[in-house]
Amino acid sequence: SSSKMTVDTNDVDAADDLDIEPTPSARQIVSVGTESDSYAFTFHEEELNSILAKVPAGWKVCVISVVGAFRTGKSFLLSWFLRYLEENCVRKSDENSANAADDTNQDGKKWYERVQTLNQHEGSFDWRGGKERNTTGMWMWSEPYFLPRENGEEVAILLVDTQGMFDHETTVGLTAAIFGLSTLLSSYQIYNVDKRIQEDNLQQLALFSEYGRMAFEAEEKAAAMGVVESNEEVEGSNVNKEGGAEKADPKKAPFQKIQFLIRDWQNFDTEDETDIDGMEAEMQSYLDHVLAERAASDLKETREQITSCFEELSCFMMTHPGFAVIKNKYTGDTSQIDSLFMNLLDRYCQKVFDSKSLQPKTVRGRELSAVELCTYIKSYAQMFEE
Ligand code: GDP
Ligand code: MG
């Protein structure tokens, strides 16, 4: 009918009424700037709600977010994450029956070898050539993906992209707000950096995670004062195997995983392109070196600040994807991507989504359900809006 023709496929409600699946896409959950105030921070609650509503009640959620300077390949990486999840997830949110989570496909190809073109827009986080700066804000992929955890449960995976930080146009305050909110809502924060971990990357991380910690503790205090409310049964709230709600551990760091993802790393000693284990050992020793005890007190403080904010800190490295990829006219032909980049990407995806290490979003050790996560994100977003 004509009404079907005119429906905006990004309008979830309209599509629902007409029984049409809206096209999966990145939804903007935070935008920056309005007509009257170019620095305003706006949280789009309805977008977040419509995504979290696709997670079955009571299920745990992993939120994987990428932050870092613009044009460092964040959205490109996240688009590869989507391809990995499509190939390897147990099922998608719109499927009821389990899909074969079969890595070894009939054609004998690896998951990434089945991707001929990495789309720039459709079905991807918008990644682009050229110098244009994208709008500032945070995006979440509209579809959760479901992966098994070691304990036999399944968790929902949500991917979050950020845009506009450290680009000389966004104020430090806004960068801190985006960094802070994405750190608060994620169970796995990836800090994308170019070529190496510089002292100012560490300083920024220390500053912004401290800012996030202050927000976290302020909210925690406010919740503790409203004791009655927090003791109420929350629908879909998290109940452990013994039947009691899990207790938060006040000694736990406020945030979970932070990982430096170094792009265009040029210094691997390992020469065999397939020896990813050898390269991973080099990644670890590089991180150890960067974090090693420093005599100068400011350098030392920076490191202590970071390690006290996160439960886990790690590092991974990718090499340059090849010169075809950075050309303005590159449109995603995957055969032009350097093979070592692909080998590292394959290992990286396997690590990020490994059933043994997948950790749902927790608050001081207590796992949140999708419903709780929604409430949690909303209260922080409101803080940053003020
Ligand atoms: P974002 O602004 O961080 O999200 O960056 P994009 O993902 O939009 O990528 C910006 C440009 O960098 C595009 O032209 C990509 O093809 C290119 N690119 C993607 N990954 C890498 C990488 O690892 N290294 C380099 N040098 N360029 C990359
Ligand atoms: Mg981007």
From TrEMBL:
Q: Which GO terms describe its molecular function?
A: GTP binding; GTPase activity
For this UniProt record, the keywords arranged alphabetically read as follows:
GTP-binding, Hydrolase, Membrane, Nucleotide-binding, Transmembrane, Transmembrane helix
Ranges for domain GB1/RHD3-type G come to 58-357
What superkingdom does the record give?
Answer: Eukaryota
Entry keyword annotation includes Transcription regulation: no
Q: What EC numbers are recorded for this enzyme?
A: 3.6.5.-
What family name appears in the similarity comment?
Belongs to the TRAFAC class dynamin-like GTPase superfamily. GB1/RHD3 GTPase family.
Supply the name of the protein: Atlastin
The organism of origin for this protein: Skeletonema marinoi
Q: Which residues of the full protein are shown?
A: 52 to 437 of 633
